[in-house]
Amino acid sequence: MATVVRTTTTTAMTTNPKPSILYAGHPIRYATSQWEKFQQNFTIIPYTSRSKAEFIHALQPGGPYSTINGILRPAISEPHIDLPLLDKELVSHLPTSCKIIASVNHGYDGIDTEELGRRGIWYCNGAGAANDSTADIALFLILAAFRYTTFSESRLREMRAARYFSVEGDVVPYANTPRNRILGVVGMGGIGVEISVRARAVGMQIHYFSRTRKGPDVEGLLGGAVYHPTLKGMLAVADCVVLACPHTPETHHILNRETFAAMKKGVRIVNIGRGKCIDEDALADAIEDGTVAGAGLDVYHDEWVYHFWLYFSPLFSFVAAAAAAGAGAASMTSMRGARFTDQIIQARGQPQIVG
């Protein structure tokens, strides 16, 4: 008698794995609770490439990054470990599984957003996260440009008595108060508004040039801010010009020989926008001929290549320079990890632009 053996085929129930995120940056140090929540929802793949070529190689089929679902860059890192700029070539190598990129950048310089959009990849930046910190740095630079505090401090640190006691003679003829002076803001976005609020606290009057005029509520908040439909109209009356605009074809070298010539003699210049918004050769000449009496620069034309005459010549001692990462570093407790992990968590299932 034959024995019939019934076999049962069991199909193992599989669950979708957690989405994988390529993490480019130093370990999270501040937003630890958000980071713990993030790791519960996503598989973290550390970014270990040391060049653009290595990165592209790792994105190829079978490579360690070939199945990533997103990229997280929560802070600026050293160049040799930071994520390369996402230009068209690099974006073309991203796997089809990659749907979102969240980066610390306030703008999107060097990012091919058109190619990302064509491939259906969401790009989220840190817009708004650094408004307060950047505005704080701007106020510091405004005060330094008027009061020459950076110059005076450098003399003190030299610890040479003869030069230290000459500070009064060097500074008094040029230093001035910002009170009752006109601050001309180029770009009245979130950062421009925060700078203006702080400038009002030290008694400055606000004028601005921007793509769109703010409503009466914002202008009222800023003490009756005056809108100028043309840049040269604002430059003609401003005692200090602050650039708070992104770098675009329209704002490239927006301050140049022609626009410096339209300014008051003894104007102060502050740039916390993008370095390429100023023609640095023209700025150096404007300082030399006395058009510009002081400058505060948080960004530079070709970072990290400094314009020699602006930063090393004794003639330009009245240029106050802040570290390019100064604004961001001051805000890491609020920025590092928290905003950017939230962006990707919100994007799981249905991407949203939240930057």
Automatic annotation (TrEMBL):
It comes from the Eukaryota. Gene3D superfamilies: NAD(P)-binding Rossmann-like Domain. Pfam families: 2-Hacid_dh_C. CDD domains: Mand_dh_like. Residues 141-305 form the D-isomer specific 2-hydroxyacid dehydrogenase NAD-binding domain. Keywords: Membrane, Oxidoreductase, Transmembrane, Transmembrane helix. The keyword Oxidoreductase applies. This is D-isomer specific 2-hydroxyacid dehydrogenase NAD-binding domain-containing protein. The lineage of its organism: Eukaryota, Fungi, Dikarya, Ascomycota, Pezizomycotina. GO terms for molecular function: glyoxylate reductase (NADPH) activity; hydroxypyruvate reductase [NAD(P)H] activity; NAD binding. PROSITE patterns: D_2_HYDROXYACID_DH_1. It comes from Blastomyces silverae. SUPFAM superfamilies: Formate/glycerate dehydrogenase catalytic domain-like, NAD(P)-binding Rossmann-fold domains. The keyword Membrane applies. InterPro entries: D-isomer_2-hydroxyacid_DH, D-isomer_DH_CS1, D-isomer_DH_NAD-bd, NAD(P)-bd_dom_sf. The chain crosses the membrane at residues 308-330. One of its GO terms (cellular component) is cytosol.
